[in-house]
Amino acid sequence: MLVPGLFGLVFDSPTSPSSISAAAGGWLGWLAFLAVVGATVFRQFDVRRPVPPDVAGLAGLAMIGLAACTVAALSSPLRLTAYGQLWGFHMMMLGWAAYAVMIAIATWWLSEHVHAAGAEGPPQALVRAANVWVIASGALAVLLGLVAAGLLQPKEESLWAAAAIGLASAAAASMGVWRRQETWAFVAGLGVNLAASLTVGYYQQVLNDWSSLLLLVEANVIAGAAVALAWLGVSNRLYRLQERQVWSGPLLALQIALTSAGAAAVDAPALVALLTLPGDLPVDLLRQIGSGPGAVAVTLAFAAAGWYLLQTWPRQAIHAVGGALVAAGVLVGAASVRWTDWFTLDPWLPYHAMIAFWSGAALLLLLAGVAVAGRAGSGERGGPALAWLGEVFQPEATRLWHFGLALSAVVAGLVWCGADPQRPTGRAASRWRRPWEGRRAIWRRRAEDVVLSGLLLNVAGTVAWLAWRDHPLAGLVETNAICLAAAAILWTIAARLMPARVARLPLGEREISFAELAAEAAARAVGRPGGGPRDARSRGNRPPNRQSVDLVGDCRGRKALVLRLAIDRSRFSFPGSIISA
User: Fold this and answer.
1) Alpha-carbon torsion, ordered 63, 65, 68, 69, to 10 deg
2) Is there a contact between 263 and 221 (Cβ–Cβ < 8 Å)?
3) CB-based burial of residue 95 (10 Å sphere; 0-12 exposed, 13-18 middle, 19+ buried)?
4) Cα(63)–Cα(472) distance, integer angstroms
5) Residue 550 in contact with residue 482, Cβ under 8 Å?
6) 3-class DSSP state for residue 512?
7) Alpha-carbon dihedral sign for residues 90, 91, 92, 98
């Protein structure tokens, strides 16, 4: 009686009620249903046995189907024929989804409060029945949702389907928390993603352009990250009897990995565009990536990844922080497309905003690492907060991400320094990088960092030389001489102030300072071959800017040598060194 009526709800015309559905949902149908249920219950009482849980689950499922047929039968009297079958169909679809939630919550409550005599846990028959009927009702709701979204009209059916699938996902999540099984949680996450996709499909009828596909990816990343955060929130219950490691929750690790991959897919097109087409950006694509949904998707994804690493692998959580900073720089660049009309003097604003953010993020990361390492090394008692920060900002990993962010900013600035309308941007990125690389060298006390810090000043000088419109090739030598001399002066002062923290370079059996090498290299560059009287005679014919470069190079190179020799002499006072500098 009931099965044909339910098929009538699915396949009959939506403009008129089905006669078979109306007959199944009439008063005779309800009378027949109550008679069957009553006879079954009376029989069990007669033989002094409880009603089997499976009978109760089947009766509830059938009652919801019968109620849906009744709603379809009442559509004509209530003047709902414009929608006809759909009201009965919605009742069946949403009712079965809600029934799954009710079974999960009710059996969870019963398992906590009802125990058989001498048993330590809930009746196993009850647990098995809950598994069976949550799966059955939830699967039927999801199946009907797919039928509604793919076959039925009007387009609002996608929202009804998303609601039903969302309820079924809530039932699966409840079962996962109750039974402490992550399989249920993973299935719930798949359902949430499906519901999000159907919602996007309602607002974007045709997914045939980049904007629609990107919105679909963003919605799924947001849904997956929300599921991952909720999963992590109840992880103490799910994994209470297990050691918190990656292999103790492989499906949770897979959920985090898929969400992080989705966030990377959102950011990747903007990153490629900003690095390869800074002067001819796809404005619509960047505006979509830098909008609210894109920012929320990336933020939630990296928040979930960071929280997961804190729970399972705290010493690697810095990688989530570093990845989030890289992605945030791309988002800032993409979002700044909206501001190009206000900053008409900088047509490459998104490109410059990304570089500036990476430089600032590298600085903040370095300062955080230095502060945490300094307090931990001083033996201060900071309580759990300091211990937690010490776990996150591991020195080597923090230095690695600082170096990667700063190097990314420098390389991105150098790639287009010749075509950039704002040519000082590449130079600014390099100069911003140099002092903080010096701070990193002092922190690490490694000779290679000292050399890198000094040479980065030459990179900045080379970029500045390239930024000049009319630059003779010889000016490159003088520019690098100036930079080497400046590096020698700065590292000489640093060695005087902090002799124990400035590393020296091993050279054979002895050690020399980088300042010594830089000063000698600057002097050799100023007195390069071919420089003698002929060079002096021709100096008067050089342009004024070349004469000033020669003068600055000569003076700074000689001052670097004087300062180096003066500080090496113990009789020379440190204030005199500063005055010489």
Assistant:
1) -100
2) yes
3) buried
4) 90
5) no
6) strand
7) positive
**Which residues neighbour 54 within 8 Å (Cβ) at sequence distance 6 or greater?**
129, 132, 133
Please state whether beta strands 505-507 and 510-512 pair in parallel, antiparallel, or not at all (unpaired): antiparallel
CA gap 555, 560 in Å, rounded: 9
Residue 416 and residue 566: Cα distance in Å, rounded?
Answer: 42
pLDDT for 572 equals: 41
> Cα separations (Å) of 329 from 299, 405, 562?
12, 10, 43
Q: How far is CA 350 from the centre of its chain?
A: 20
The DSSP bridge partners found for residue 507 are: 510
What is residue 141's three-state secondary structure? Answer: helix
**Interval 350-388: pLDDT, tens:** 888 999 899 889 888 877 877 777 666 555 555 677 777
pLDDT band at 187 (very low <50, low <70, confident <90, very high): very high
Task: Render the burial of 524-541: b for 16+ CB within 10 Å, e for the rest.
Answer: ebbeeeeeeeeeeeeeee
Distances in whole angstroms, Cα of residue 217 to Cα of each of 101, 259, 266, 306, 334: 28, 10, 7, 21, 17
CA 306 vs. chain centroid, Å, equals 9
Per-residue pLDDT, 433: 44
CB 225 within 8 A of CB 301: yes
Residue 425's identity, in one-letter code, is T
pLDDT averaged over the chain? 78
Phi-psi domain of 162 (left: phi exceeds 0; alpha: psi -120 through 50; beta: other): alpha
Instruction: Tell me the pLDDT tens digit for each residue of 484-497.
Output: 888 778 777 777 77
